[in-house]
Amino acid sequence: MSDYILGTHDAELARLQLQHALWRPAAQAAWRRAGLGPGQRVLELGAGPGLAALELARAVGPAGRVLGLELSPAYVAAGQAVAEREGLEQLELRRHDLRTDPLPAEGFDLLWCRWVAMFLPELEPLLDQLAPALRPGGTVLFHEYLHWDTFGLHPHGAAIRRFGQAAQRSFREAGGDPDVNRRLPALLAQRGFQIQELRPLPVLGQAGSMAAQWMGSFVAVYGEQLQRLGLWSAADAAQAAAEVSEAQRAAGSYWMGPTLLELRATK
User: Fold this and answer.
1) Which is nearest to 108 in space by CA: 87, 129, 86?
2) What stretches of 10-105 show up as alpha helix (H) in DSSP?
3) Which of 57, 67, 92, 204 could form a disulfide bond with 88, CB atoms 3.0-4.6 angstroms apart?
4) DSSP string covering 45-58, please?
């Protein structure tokens, strides 16, 4: 796999930046609950362009270390350039294929993974490497989806509902599992991890909110990919655009995102 099913083009990068801004408070709260602090060593799986890794590097400070593993060379270069520009010597982004490359066994305090496990055709080879990568008592922290079917635009979003179904089909046909966090807690427990917390993280917002902008941008950007895959049509896209436009005018309309589950466990 040389690229993401979602792509790494400019429109997707802009969507990721909006996504990071929306989800930053939830991520930072999760890191605090996991005990993140100065001097710690953090491993991020699927770092993308380094948006979360930069936040983590600031949190651990110069005495800490953050290693972000990322498939896309373009994203690695972009994130590393920002780290160097900001003087964050504690941050390293490294090209890495989670399906085939072994995790570095550096005794990390925290392993952070968000929206990555859902795209992996096989989870077991990666999960078997988590404990060796951590120090004794180290923590894994996953933000992955639990219930993708909650995605929708209400009360009138038939085309948006079809988009959500098409998106899930595309993930599954590529070997992923959009509801992967239904399985992850049990898979970790089988490997000797102690589950510390399972916390649902829903997201919703009325027209004009950041949440609505994020979900609308996903429909616009990924809708083009779904058309290329033959899972979505120009007519679908036009109807979805009309529904979004109507929601901006209709009081009481709102977006609901796929339900995320925060999973924290220690070994």
Assistant:
1) 129
2) 10-33, 51-60, 73-85
3) 57
4) ES-TTSHHHHHHHH
Do the beta carbons of residue 266 and residue 139 sit within 8 Å? yes
What are the residues whose beta carbons fall under 8 Å from the beta carbon of 67, sequence distance 6 or more? 41, 42, 43, 44, 92, 93, 94, 104, 106, 108
CB 31 within 8 A of CB 112: yes
Which CATH fold would you assign to the domain 10-266?
Answer: Rossmann fold (3.40.50)
Main-chain dihedrals φ then ψ at residue 72, nearest 5 degrees:
-80, 120
Cα(110)–Cα(149) distance, integer angstroms = 30
CA 148 to chain centroid, in Å, comes to 13
Residues 6+ apart with CB under 8 A from 63: 38, 39, 90
Q: Where are the domains of the chain?
A: 10-266
Q: How far apart are CA 241 and CA 235, in angstroms?
A: 10
Nearest in space to 42 (alpha carbons), one of 125, 107, 128, 131: 107
pLDDT the model gives residue 1? 38
The number of CA neighbours under 13 Å toward the Cβ of 79 is 33
114-124 pLDDT, tens per residue?
999 999 999 99
Amino acid identity of residue 24, one-letter, is R
DSSP assigned state of 156? S
Report pLDDT digits (tens) over 148-192.
Answer: 999 999 999 999 999 999 999 999 999 999 999 999 999 999 999
| Under 8 Å between Cβ of 41 and 107 | yes
Strands 108-114 and 134-147, bridge-based pairing: parallel
